[in-house]
């Protein structure tokens, strides 16, 4: 999962304030430690600089604990982890780390937007276009074109037909003309946009991170939220989006299109939108706002002093979901090394236990509130092995459609500057981020 805690909006004026701010090189590294793509904007920096990154990676308990900023004798390495890929940038002077982190997220999102996913295979299959994109996104180490709709005019997204023609003719996907967005007074929106059906849809997506103790009490809880937009409107529409309870939003980071002073004064989002898909804002709701926990877990995992066995009993149920069903529920338990096998029974879903990795996965699906899902049975341990010193934690995944767990609600969307009436829609989704239950 990728959190928005590091995210900050890209504003060209702010970029220029970073004296000598420059991204020198970019390395893409997979989880096996292979550098499968590198791009340099000045002179070539040796791959050996990544050894400092590999050292930090070895010290980290897992991939998400690798420090985002790693100092080396002559450089800084600033990295993010997305879709099982480390995006590692090399910086030669001190720059605001958020400036670089935001750019790396933009690179990952652009690859996702162009090719449908951001995997190593996809990048390798489209390596020429990826290089073309990186060349346009950064000019001499400074961010230049980072908006999807502008880039798509500069570099046409791949299609099977275009790929075949390019192979035969030796031509590239780079356009011959300057994009109309560069000629527009609004740099993130191309001029002369026309649609038969004018639509504006917004997705409010919230990830809840939580740690619950054995009794179900909340030890830690916070919400990372985003509002993603898909706007296909003709002309130059000017939109305002208002909320029923805007005070909920804390630590907010906006797309550059948002008029910040209007938000500060009225708590209303006023903006001329980019064309197509974009992230309007990301936000944070912390425990001081009393984050509601949408599920509860009753569990008992015990290991017996005598004999080589243990018991497991887990029940999952909905809580504070406003009547919305809890779906795609998966419970994962990392068992102690002495657990050889699990003999369990469940009335709902199915479970697997891998005796090599010691991971128990219970795939529940959708919770039926009338008959709560339960998993129970016995655990077999190595004979003669001491009783495990501590019980394993449970990690939960789930989704709740049409619910923002923070209580955030869009009040209305209004459009000015154009005469037609657009189709409008808002969808809500809550899902588990790092959701852990201690036993």
Automatic annotation (TrEMBL):
Record-level GO BP terms: intracellular protein transport; vesicle-mediated transport
Residues annotated as domain MHD: 197-438
InterPro entries documented for this protein: Adaptor_comp_med_subunit (IPR050431), AP2_Mu_C_sf (IPR036168), AP_mu_sigma_su (IPR022775), Clathrin_mu (IPR001392), Clathrin_mu_CS (IPR018240), Longin-like_dom_sf (IPR011012), MHD (IPR028565)
Chief subcellular location: membrane
Membrane topology: Peripheral membrane protein
Keyword terms of this UniProt record: Cytoplasmic vesicle, Golgi apparatus, Membrane, Protein transport, Transport
Membership in a protein family: Belongs to the adaptor complexes medium subunit family.
Name of protein: MHD domain-containing protein
Organism (species): Conger conger (Conger eel)
